[in-house]
Amino acid sequence: MTQDELKALVGRAAIDYVVPGTVVGVGTGSTVNCFIDELARIKDRIAGAVSSSVKSTERLQALGIPVLDANEVERLPVYIDGADEIDHGGYMIKGGGAALTREKIVADIAERFICIADESKLVQTLGRFPLPVEVIPMARAQVARRLAALGGEPVWREGVVTDNGNVILDVRGLSITDPAALEAEINQWPGVVTCGIFARNKASVCLLGTAQGVRTLTWA
Ligand SMILES: O=C(CO)[C@H](O)[C@H](O)COP(=O)(O)O
């Protein structure tokens, strides 16, 4: 199976986790696009979506799915999103699509994070994928110096402006053995909006697309 077929497979499988009559949290990326297309088939059975990016909002609306403001929703039963990496504890790196901050906000409203990914995203230790960090533009150089002092090699994703008007630093060379500690450390620096480690908002379930079918990993 191709990577696109694996993404389509888990996009379909995620429909089983949608709770009828409720609002669904929707992430961002090519795997989520497959999910959105499937969600459109059952749009009459849901109350709408809360979206994590302008791109996902546009796709949802084009398919006739109402998009609600995150501030109008107190709790979402599920948030469905992809990942750039996920480890065997459900900890993730996200933000390859520069949507990490809104993704973390919507994930925080949700009771369960359902991660959908092809099996290439499953890793022993997070850090092979460069860690995205969303930064207020004025703090870019100082945050880059701090990341370098941690042993990382930050690279400014030039030309990319997030939906929140900020910039992204992609950090290579970090071996992330304690995701929660590193997330907390980076997130407290002035000018950092958030980093792409999802430890506090880690996955409850991961639907992994494999050549043998969907492999389901679950965590408490
Ligand atoms: O975090 C993300 C966007 O900010 C995506 O979930 C992540 O990049 C995975 O994307 P894809 O499904 O296209 O591989």
TrEMBL record:
InterPro entries, alphabetized: NagB/RpiA_transferase-like (IPR037171), Ribose5P_isomerase_typA_subgr (IPR020672), Ribose5P_isomerase_type_A (IPR004788)
Pathway note: Carbohydrate degradation; pentose phosphate pathway; D-ribose 5-phosphate from D-ribulose 5-phosphate (non-oxidative stage): step 1/1
Isomerase in keyword set: yes
An annotated GO BP: D-ribose metabolic process
Reaction(s) catalysed (UniProt annotation): aldehydo-D-ribose 5-phosphate = D-ribulose 5-phosphate
Keywords carried by this UniProt record: Isomerase
GO-annotated cellular components: cytosol
Record-listed E.C. numbers: 5.3.1.6
Family classification: Belongs to the ribose 5-phosphate isomerase family.
Official protein name in the record: Ribose-5-phosphate isomerase A
Organism for this UniProt entry: Caldimonas thermodepolymerans
Organism placement in taxonomy: Bacteria, Pseudomonadati, Pseudomonadota, Betaproteobacteria, Burkholderiales
Gene for this chain: rpiA
